[in-house]
Amino acid sequence: MRKANWLLLLALPAFVLWAIFMVGPFVRGILMSFTNEALVGPNAMNVHFIGLENYRRLLSDADFYNSVKVSSIFVFGSAIVGQVGLGLLLAVLINRKRKIYGKISWAIALTTAIVILAWVTPAAVTGLTWTSFLNKYGVLNQIIGVFVGSEVAYFWLAKKPMLSIILANIWQGTGWSMLLLGAAIESVPHEVNEAAEVDGATSWQRFRYITLPLIMGPILVNLIFITIWTYGVFEVPYMLTKGGPAGKTELLTIYGYQQAFKYFDLGYGSTVAVGILVITMVLAIIYYRLLGRQAWNK
Amino acid sequence: MKIRTVITFLALLSIVLLLAACSGAPTAAPSEQPTQAPAQEQPTEAPTKAPPTPAPTEKPVEQPTTAPESEQPETITLSLAHPVWFNDHDWTVTKIKEWEAKNPGVTVKLVELPSPDGPYREKLVLDLASGQGPDIYLADTFWFGEFAEAGYLANLTDYVNAWDDWSQWYDAAKSAVTYKDNVYGLNRTTDVRPLYYRKDLFEKAGIATPWQPTSWDDMFSAAQKLKDIGVKAPWMVKAGKVVGEATTMQGFYMLYLGCGGQLWNPETGKWDIGSQCLRDTFQVYYDLYIAKKLGGDPDNWLAGDPISNYRQMMQAGELGMIATWNGDWSGTFGPNGDFPLENRDEQLAYTKFPAQAPGKGIRGQDYVTISGGWAFVVNGASQHVDKAFDLLAYLHTKDNVISYYRDQPTLPGGLPTRQDVTNSEEWQSLVDDYMLWQAEELVPLTTFRPPVPEYPKVSEAIQSATETILLGGSVDDALAQYQDDVIRIVGEDNVTK
């Protein structure tokens, strides 16, 4: 009992910091979503609670629904299919236990380094790099130009804005999934695989029936992380398209940012942020349920 | 069982919060507002931000600085921004030093907030809202409504009325810094918008120069001739959300004023959402970019850096004509500009932007233009409004405004707002023909944007509507969208259909 008290005391500083920097702003944000708080215009001098007005506005706001749709496409394309899918593929390919590993270890090291490099590059740099890559006279068009033999001036950011931000986000974020799933694959006991091989299982069958079920837990955990992260992604898409053209890439974060820091409508901006929170919470609960069932099956 | 559920929920919530915070989403409270005392009554015109000074309006003008204030040296923080056009920093520093020498005990601290307009405004507003704002700052005049209502601007009406020089200000310039009958700043300079065209391309297309179109039809037929000789973008009109206010000021407004449009009626307080002129304006966008394809690729305005892009196109001879900011002449296309033309005076020319047809423009004008410009203002929460105004007045004396044009390495792009300056021989001998032309031909024609807090949001709705057209939407689509947006911003009762 005494020991437990001591432990609580030792954890206290961490709790205090958590309360100040996480809980405080969180509560303030929620409270703000019930006010008309603004930084410019008459409301800046006349802040008061307006009840559920912001939420009523949110639910009848076509731009908000557009953002939910845009964000969901973005999450599905760049996080679930892109980062987790590609990350899993890369994780399998760079597995040290593959027989071919000895022969292509340099290629694997190089791939790993490149993917991780993209992951650790600051978002501002990634944003600028991709802007120049996808520009009308950018690197991508010049590369395509070499193959088709004439000048290409296709404006990716204007013509294919969603594809552009999805590709940039996959490029940036795959390293995480690769590392996490790579570690999970390497923890799969070698004996099980060997036994299956002796029984005549093909490599696809071994992956499908042995590796995949054994790493389902890490995959789900990864999905939780990536989904929540990606709903919160802001910097690179904002630098690439600023949510345009005509709201086609206006992610929830960009929409909320614009309400709060372009129009300085903090009340409504906070309401949008609460909307993001609710969506990610719901998804987290669904994943968590799946994870529970997964553990049960084992 | 229940406890486990609660714990699980809390754990999940923390994870979501942590992850959301890690990814940099603006989830939670961005700034604290210490002085945000919930006001009991509707704010009047006088910005009375909670604790600091009494409302400036109530302050007797001649009030001598109180005893304790003059005994201890005070520090005024003067914040200067560097948007692309603001390159008079060194000159300003020199003048501030002069003023400090005349005001012992007062120190001016320069706080530079680097950036283009959008981020500058963002940083500034956050500083002002947190009570950490500078005493004096530069503000775009179209922010005045929103800023005055929020208490970020000190009312300078009594100060300017007691200042003899104020009578030298042009009325149009005065109205640019006036909101609800109160003066909130001193214009640094003002600007106007001419139409630029590539003289060499026009001659090649068989159009006689100097060229002066008298209607939109003139412009369309010239654009068609330019297209026939292979000019990529014969006539560009600024459009879309990416370039922000430039779309409204230099694209939309130049057309809209030309068919007599009045976006906001000062008498009724209503916004135009359904006039024929509004429709005609969007029709020009549609014809240029979609139907007749005379405006170049609409994508130019949808992503990337459209401003640099059109400048580059002008330099490369791919752009025929465009209405834009007056400072582009020297700042962009001049010998020291960002996109210099080899032989500017032979290649580029400027002229007045015509109304839809002669006499159809606002106030029955044949030609139209619009002015904006930045002003020095005093923070509504400043403790030193007297001293701050004294410094501003010093920066804008007749001698100093002339010095502004005389003592800088390159000629500034903006126009002075004092009549005694523009009428002085010294100033006229300092500036080039282009600036004299603007002062004589464009300044008398000029107009200003609605000085109301809703304007920036309505302006955004305009930009959004033009973007809809760029993406292939019809004029009806753009109008419908614009109507919805404006009704949402100002309310059903404040629009004219």
What keyword list fits this structure?
heterodimer; A: 298 residues; mainly alpha; MetI-like fold; 14 helices; 77% helix; globular; B: 497 residues; alpha/beta; D-Maltodextrin-Binding Protein, domain 2; 2 domains; four-stranded mixed β-sheet; three-stranded antiparallel β-sheet; 15 strands
Q: Could you walk me through the main structural features you see in this protein, from its secondary elements to its overall organization?
A:
The complex is a heterodimer of chains A (298) and B (497). By secondary structure, chain A is mostly helical. Chain A has 14 helices and no strands. Chain A has a single domain, classed as MetI-like (MetI-like fold, Orthogonal Bundle). In chain A, helix 13 runs antiparallel to helix 14. Chain A is globular. Chain B has a four-stranded mixed sheet with strand order 8-10-7-11, sandwiched between helices. In chain B, helix 10 packs across helix 20 and helix 11 runs parallel beside helix 20. Chain B has two domains: 194 residues, Periplasmic binding protein-like II (D-Maltodextrin-Binding Protein, domain 2, 3-Layer(aba) Sandwich); 219 residues, Periplasmic binding protein-like II (D-Maltodextrin-Binding Protein, domain 2, 3-Layer(aba) Sandwich). With 497 residues, chain B is of the alpha/beta class. About 10% of the residues of chain B have low confidence. In chain B, helix 3 links the parallel strand 1 and strand 2. At the A-B interface, helix 1, helix 7, helix 11, helix 12 and helix 13 of A face helix 1, helix 4, helix 5 and helix 20 of B.
Tell me about the largest β-sheet of chain B. 4 strands, mixed
Would you report the number of β strands of chain B? 15
* CATH architecture heading of the largest domain in chain B: 3-Layer(aba) Sandwich
Query: Treating each run of at least 4 consecutive H or I residues as one helix, how many helices of chain A?
Result: 14
- At the third CATH level, what is the topology name of chain A? MetI-like fold
Using the coordinates above, name the CATH class of chain A: Mainly Alpha
Helix content of chain B: 40-55%
Structure class of chain A: mainly alpha
Topology of chain A as a string of helices (H) and strands (E):
HHHHHHHHHHHHHH
**Which regions of chain B are unreliable across 5 or more consecutive residues at pLDDT < 50?**
22-71
- The percent range for helix content of chain A is over 70%
The pLDDT mean of chain A sits at: 88
Structural class of chain B: alpha/beta
Distance between termini of chain A? 35 Å
The rough form of chain B would be described as globular
Count of domains of chain B: 2
Q: Would you identify the CATH architecture of chain A?
A: Orthogonal Bundle
